[in-house]
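User: Modeling request: complex.
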Amino acid sequence: MRFVLSLLILLMGVSGLPHLSSAEGVNDAAVFAAKPAKLLSAYRLFADPAVMTPNDGVVPYDLNTPLFTDYAVKRRFVYVPDGASAEYHETEAFDFPVGTVLVKSFGYPADFSKPDQDIQFIETRLLIHQQEGWVALPYVWNDDMSDATLKVAGKRVDKQIALADGTVKSISYAVPNKNQCKGCHALDDAVIPLGPKARHLNKDFAYPSGMANQLQHWSDAGLLSGAPDAASAPAMAVWNDPTSGSLEERARAYLDVNCGHCHRPRGPADNSGLFLSALEEDRIALGIWKRPVAAGQGTGGRNFDIAPGDPSDSILLFRMETTEPGVLMPELGRSLQHDEGVALIGAWIESLPVTDQPQWQ
Amino acid sequence: MKSLNKLRIRDGQPALVAALFGLTLAACDQGSDQSASAPETTSPPDVMEKMEETAEDAAAVLMPGPDAQEQIQEALIVAEPGDTVMLGAGVFELTDVLSLDVDDVTLLGAGMDKTILSFKGQLAGGEGLLVTSDRTVLKDFSIEDPKGDGIKAKGVDTISFLNVRAAWTQGLKDTNGAYGLYPVQSKNVLIDGSVAFGASDAGIYVGQSQNIIVRNSTAEYNVAGIEIENSYDADVYNNTAQHNSTGILVFDMPNLPQMGSRSIRVYQNKVINNDTDNFSPPGGIVNIAPKGAGILVFSSRDVHIFENEVGNNQTSNILLVGYPVPYEDPNMNPLVREIYVYNNTLGKAGWAPNGPLAEEGAKALGGQFPSILWDGAHSYMRDGETVSEEAVVVIRGNTGETSFLNLGLTNVGLNFMEAQPSPELPGVDVEIPAYDPVVLPQDS
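Assistant: Request completed. Predicted assembly structure:
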């Protein structure tokens, strides 16, 4: 058995030789190391970190509807070791092989009217799939964007951001600590990826080689196995694109991405009994006519998580509107109100039929 | 990291530990009168051993300072199972949640009144300290003024809160956090010698948990003093719950992952002078908790309430009521049933029922409430069908102000218009069953 294994490794090594021999490829040794690298450069994920140009084998991706984090722009990448592939799943994150690195960089453009230019990146978060499970690591970029340093305890960065409408906001940007990563990326107390699910990834992306559907591209590139045709895979609406889905579909997409990772059965906020993932079908669990449990001052004096037809009596909307620490939701990653998101969810609640309120019979 | 290394405790430095942890080590003295400052010459061997153990286990001793947030958080992240993370005396000014996710770690301060983790300047997060790792011990420190909850332990197997305090110090405001000490979805929960002050919901709140002991603790000036909710197997004893709106609550709530509160004993507690206006924000269920209720049970099964001192509570001493607001959940049994109230010493109560529900009820009862009140309900609706059951309640052997009323309602929902009050004590022929006290692995 051991002989066969050695032979296999040898063969794999030979077949992968040109790639592995290049000092420029992703550093698998760093990926597998028990101790995380102090500097992000050790992983060799980027060819040019200043503009987030990925290294060979590191594939950029995007989501139909992203998480709102104080208007930060994001760059996402996946690296799957040579010869391995992730297994498709219809509803959960794909089952990525050991050695996978998921990369997400957060930054702000100098001017939001040109969101793709002059981006100052603040941090890059890695999710590394090691033998024992996923490890979450936050790296904070230095000012000249030459490298980023591991900050397991997180960091606050004062930041002025100039929004597209010309307003300038001062924020205390919070790079999460290692435990806070797990505050969202958790299911049954194990760290898990959130973004790379079929319904989020099923969209076109402008690759250097041209426009292609991401699921198709991942399959073609050997990153993903078992995926159906993109047309048969689930796809979420784009929250701010009315051509992509109905008001309800866009609202549910927004809630799925911004809330549903914690507010789901077995997730970090499951003690609330409020479940906001796109898969939730029970209206009370979804918040409709649901009374709060542990909201405290988070009720804002309102009575139901979602009072259909009445945004002003809906706690869920209040917690999206407020910027008060300890009250605002999500607990992490937001200090500003997301005006456009609030408008979307408010309009959806307004549109819900005012029927079937539980009452004594 | 540099400062951590500087403070890292090595063998042969027990004096430093002793200096920083005089109180704690004195407690290890086990009755000897030896001074902790001169352990080499005067301590018996077992004390020396304990100190060296403490020194070896210690990951770091942390002191207040501008980098406290990062230092404590880093220590909690790099800690290894078996470590003790030590916090020295002083006020630590913190801006973000501290969290612990490593099993078998002790977070140890220099004393509830000496080590203060202040979250007055908190910028984000739902609590002060979050624990998600098993076999955790929290000991000898205070959490003050977090924006959300005080100490939350979620999904933990074996968690001990020993001589810790959660307090809101800026007055009783509806902007205070909801819960002070807040284990949820946990098992083997011990809260001992601890204090909760100023919570806008419950000071000590155990939710959706099992195998629980709350003892020797004090809850005061909270909306709810001590609350056991959607939990199984809890012993709540030798606590003081005073100057809250409601002293001790046993609840079962619908639409939650764990439901069916049962097997809860509330005994030998002092539940007195609960005289604080309900300052919770509207919307939460606790907002209907009346000022001046001693022990309040909502929709639970198998609850023993005995040998408590309950008195000077203006709404009532002991209230046994089915779940009082409309809900939709086929898994919910909203009745109080198998409730045993015996051998309590009761003081003055019921002279001015407070809060919307109690005030409405008092109107139906001539303006006052008795010392003990039961709604008498034995029916409820489930999926459009009426479900009826024998709701056993036993009231027996209490002394002092023992006035009692059974409202005689058929259905849950507190429709006072249908009340047919009766002072007859229920369950005279029912034998009070024996129970097995809760045993915790960390409490041997």
